[in-house]
Structure prediction request, 419 residues.
Amino acid sequence: MDLLLKHIAKLETHDSKLEISITGSKSETNRLLLLQALYPNLTLKNTSNSDDSEVMIQALQNSQPKTHNPQLIDIHHAGTAMRFLTAYFAIQENREVVLTGSSRMHERPIKILVEALRQLGAEISYESNEGFPPIKIKGKKLTQNKVALPANVSSQYISALLLIAPKLKNGLELTLEGKITSIPYIKMTLELLNEIGIETYFVGNKIIINPKSTIQNPKAIIIESDWSSASYFYSIIALSEIGTEITLSSYKKNSLQGDSALAEIYKNFGVETIFETNLIILKKTNNYQLSIIHYQLNNSPDIAQTIAVNCFGLGIGCHLTGLHTLKIKETDRLEALKTELSKLGALVSVTYNSLTLKPSNHINPNCSIKTYQDHRMAMAFAPLALKTSIIIEEAEVVSKSYPTFWEDLKRIGFNIYKL
Prediction:
């Protein structure tokens, strides 16, 4: 499904009570779904309605063996599910599964996590290409408790190990070698473990988690809404007239999510974040003054696409670094950004971990943006409809993290048509 987003001069946000409700964080939801499978006393509220979370739910609910043959579990494009479920099924005794996914998933590396689990005693083999899905997992009790990982790998590998750690007979002592990246996502995992009563220690480059077989008392957790999804509304407000505002729920000031850095970052684009009980108000208060901005996004790489496109729409340049994990996402996001922004007239260069955009006040109209089966490509480019008409190809890809995205844009005045 391709969508035409016709140019609109301004948003129809005169109704000050207009509120967009965004469902729970995909990152928090998927961690808690796995913990709920391990500790059934957990109750979750405001879970994400994303495709990735639905995949996690289905895989965990359909986890009972039906035959003596390995059970095939297809997680499609869900990278988080692939990493988390690899660890989960490694400790499911007397279970045998094959984890597979889309053709792109078969190109996304899993070797670092597999090797770490093998160090703990897991039995995992590759069905096709060494180091990549699909993988066969024979679940067993893991008694080893010490493992080391490079500190600059995807935080999802690290979190996958941390989430199963309390269920290991002797807990886990994880050493991260080198400079740690994506610290907020690691801390998110640890704080969620703490919230359900698991003791964790994170000192220097070492993380220790004590074993805990059960949680005695029922525990209900309300999941905060997704800050990555909020980023597109930050971009919309930044591209709008002074005085434009939108209310988003449900958010809190002391967030576990690294992408909550948006509140500080978007001050440079004239957007104020007003925190009220269980919600935020985004308001355009002034016009930007900078000609180029520099951001190190190690801790929040998922908002890089939004920021890059936002800067182009505002006519300012940017230099974004700390983006090495974007090479192995749903697509190579750095190359995809370079290609699609160039269609619009941008001058962009990328390295293995950075993107540089030169300031420009010209936008080519009526361009068709390829999304590469990447939800964030579709949503990051959508706010440019405030500057020019634009076509988003395969727009249904947003269901991966934000299924109601296009409906919510229509609510605030975007003119969207199927082609």
